[in-house]
Amino acid sequence: MVDMEIKREDILHLADLSDLSLTDEEVESLGKDLQDIIKYISQLDELDTKNVEPTYQVFEMENVWRNDEVVEQEADREALLALSEKSRDNQIEVPKVL
Amino acid sequence: MSKYVPTIGIECHVQLCTKTKLFSEVDNDARGKEPNSCVSPVDYALPGMLPRLNGEAIRFAILAGRAMNCEINALSRFDRKHYFYPDSPKGYQITQFYQPIIGSGYVELPSGTKIRIEHAHLEGDAGKLTHFDGYSLVDLNRVDTPLIEIVSMPDIHSAKDAHDYCKELWRLMCYAGVTYGDLYNGNMRFDVNTSLAPEGSKKLGVRTEVKNLNSFRSVERAVEYEIKRQTKVLDSGEKVVQQTLGWSDTTGKTTPQRSKEVAADYRYMPEPDLPPIHLSAEFIEAESAKLPLMPSDYRERFKSVIAEDIMEALLDYPTLMQKLGEINEQYVKNVSNWFASVLLAEEKSAEYLNDLPSAKDLNELAEMNEKKELSSTATKEVFLRLFDPQMKGRGAKNIAKELGLIQENDLGALEKIVDAVLAKPETQKAQEDFKAGQEKVLGFLVGQVMKESRGKANPSAVSEILRNKLTK
Fold first, then answer.
1. Which pTM value belongs to this model?
2. Is residue B203 in some structural domain?
3. Which residues does chain B have within 8 Å of residue A61's beta carbon, measured at their own beta carbons?
4. What is the mean pLDDT of chain A?
5. Strand partners, A17
6. A97, B41, B211, B319: most buried by Cβ count inside 10 Å?
7. Hey, what long-range contacts does A1-9 have (CB within 8 A, 24 or more apart)?
8. By CA distance, what is B26's nearest residue in A?
9. Would you call B56 and A71 a contact, using CB atoms and an 8 Å cutoff?
């Protein structure tokens, strides 16, 4: 894994999944950044984790449930809709998707 | 011509009828409410918002799982399934990919065929998009409505079984009380995978997936269509293309959906914001014990009194079966027949079934019928009145009295009426004729007594008394 190489296609694939359009320079620099990050994280591969349970969370909590009761929200519809770039008929307006 | 064996697997999404959403304390029942009126900053996925798990959804999942004879897993977790689409402000769906709460089990169809369940898991629903010319609108009311996704094994081999499986799932979820089960409003949605393999082949063929069906009939028709279409493709020597299809009830055809060019890549990862669910055996046991009677329980319990076809028709109405469960055992046969013939035949089921008569009234009515205080016609009349909002509060007995339908069974009183009729000059000839052996004039005499009683006498009792008196 240490030698995993981030290719140009990987960056384009990730950008596509996130619906981002990148310039050639951005593809270049993001690729380099991601390569560095993975290289850094890959140091962990040196450790033998064969007998270690995977870590899903760092707090030893479980069964954090709440009651099924409606709580009046402070933020109302108008406040939330105001956060979107455009709204119409009490809905968020987005470019046409299909 | 070559023969193929169809294999069908079904994924079913069930919206749970909890009061609040899966991860936020917001009203989960958005029926008839304005867009974006049931939302919170958590649903909007504002930075720093923390999802908090609804405990009721866990309990519902246990009930749903037990309804399908499934193992409930002691340990389950949530994961993030990433995709970018305006119906999901988070940019991912919170689901259970690695460790679902519901393990393997099975659903038994009315025919006796068992369909195995691979697993079922909890997840949040997505928002609703409406497309217009040049733009789309987003309503987040449905975001994180709790869903249970039920994944079947590829055990289904005909369109009919696909239909029956979906219908049985719907019944199970309704009887378990975990969903409103309103198919028209998308409370249950089916994704159907169909493939064909040559007879005898051990390998499954290439499958297609028809997404988002919301009626049993659509499931059946879409499968029928896919079997035909794929048979044609294979017979002409071509290959079935693995793809996602849409179904149109209007055209009766499946059509390829515009698919993303790249294969789906959801980059699943554990959801760090939600601690794992760890259920003790005692908790699972205690919650499972709350499972109400299931269709199979009713089939077993009433198999000697309710005919199979009537049973299957009535089973579509959980409230009705629950009501039958409260009826005195000796009256279940009669009451179920009234429901079947009067209600279902009149197709007033929807309005009637929301507000059924009380078990007390139904028992009372059945008892009056059994004691011959009411003729069968009069019984049906009172039965219908029990659904009448103006009448129902008054009780079966009072309604029967008010309508003057109670038959006179008091033998002493009947005898007096009979005597009065026999004393009338116009019945003398008939009496002579009967004594001379003319059986059929008894009907005339019974009729006279009925008239005298203004229709309230029990005809069979009258005929008995007349016979006794005239043959003395």
1. 0.85
2. yes
3. 275
4. 89
5. none
6. B41
7. A1/A42, A1/A45, A2/A39, A2/A42, A2/A45, A4/A38, A4/A42, A5/A35, A6/A31, A6/A34, A6/A35, A6/A38, A7/A31
8. A70
9. no
Q: Compute the Cα dihedral for A52, A54, A58, A62 and give only its sign.
A: negative
pLDDT mean over B266-295: 96
The token pair that represents B424 in the structure block: 């009338």
ipTM exceeds 0.90: no
Q: Reduce the secondary structure of B279-318 to three states and give it as a string.
A: CCHHHHHHHHCCCCCCHHHHHHHHCCCCCHHHHHHHCCCH
Domain boundary among B282, B317, B351: B282
Q: How many domains does chain B have?
A: 3
Backbone angles phi, psi at B237, to 5 degrees: 85, 5
Report residue B145 as tokens.
């409505």
Q: What is the nearest CA distance from B131 to chain A, expressed in angstroms?
A: 7
B256 and B335 assigned to the same domain: no
Sheet strand arrangement including B135-139 = A87-88, A91-95, B135-139, B128-131
Domain hosting B131: range is 4-282
Say whether residue B278 is in contact with chain A using an 8 A CB cutoff: yes
B447 touching A (Cβ < 8 Å): no
The CATH fold assigned to A8-46 is Histone, subunit A (1.10.20)
Same domain, B105 and B249: yes
